[in-house]
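Working notes for the structural subgroup meeting. M.R. asked for a predicted model of this chain before we commit to crystallization trials. I am recording the input and output together here so anyone reviewing the notebook later can reproduce the run.

Input as submitted:
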Amino acid sequence: MVTSSEVLEVIVVSMRDAFLAVTVFVAAMVLLFSWLQYITAGKFVDAIRANKRWQPVIGALMGITPGCGGAIVMMPMYARGYVTYGTVIATLIATLGDAAFVLIGAAVTDSSFIAPVIAVHLISFVVGVTWGYLVDGLKITPRNPLGKFGPTFKDDNPPENNVETDDVEANEIIDDLGREEEGGWRYFLLHQGYTVWWMVTGLGLIFAVLLLVWSAQDAEFNLEINYNPFTLHGFITWIGLLGTSLSVILYITQKNWIRDDTEASIGDKLYSMRETMIHSASETAFVTFWVMAAYLVFEFSMLFSGMSEADLARYGDGLIAVVLAAFIGLIPGCGPQIIAITAYT
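Returned structure, recorded in token form:
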């Protein structure tokens, strides 16, 4: 018989661990990559336009960059005729989305994940580049789905053929992404609450690193559940609970709960450093929510079924698991993929 105290423990541990084991490391990486996108956006547009031969390679590199920003930025570039259709295909195939942050975060805390993370990125990159060049080589486009071997269909909105021209500023690509509408309680909560979220996350990152150090020094070290904030374990527990709670609040402010990045949010991030900080917090909160959901599903499955981790692992491989994972990958948005990756880590 499952007791209420056991249910509460599962919820507390899931919220605490989601923040201290995943969120704080994801936040640091999201901010880093978002900052890199912010300072290199214009240079990237110029570089990819000037190197048509290498566009599928550059597109795949943008795809394997954690997050969905690379794929989203590529769409208006294709619409303007700056990149080939094969480049779009290469980018989309290589895109790992926000699930990449979960994988990299696992590698940060456990070195055994380094090799799988590298392998996933390499496979995604190679497959993306291969299909990108194949699509361009066969001259496949939306108007010619069979390329050189099929009929051409009419396209009411063909991309502009501007690949070789330089008279349009790179900033127009960013402008094409749009901006989020100001106003409303969602906008207010996100733009006023992100500073508090970053302060708690910064404090959480410090303790997360300390937990790794303590665990390395003492193999038997275990973070206990303690609700007294004036004790070390209790204080760390409350940091985790507060961080996850704030993340859920920021998650609720998003208009789409399945996917986080939109053209508007990417446009905002590339517009100013403040918006980069705001949407980095929002993106990390999105990951936190789905990681916590995965933890809860996992822990409650074992609690109510009486199964062990070894029992669940037996159903995590084989052909059926691979096919199921492929179907999950087809679902628009990063939420379901984050759950699948969290189950792996």
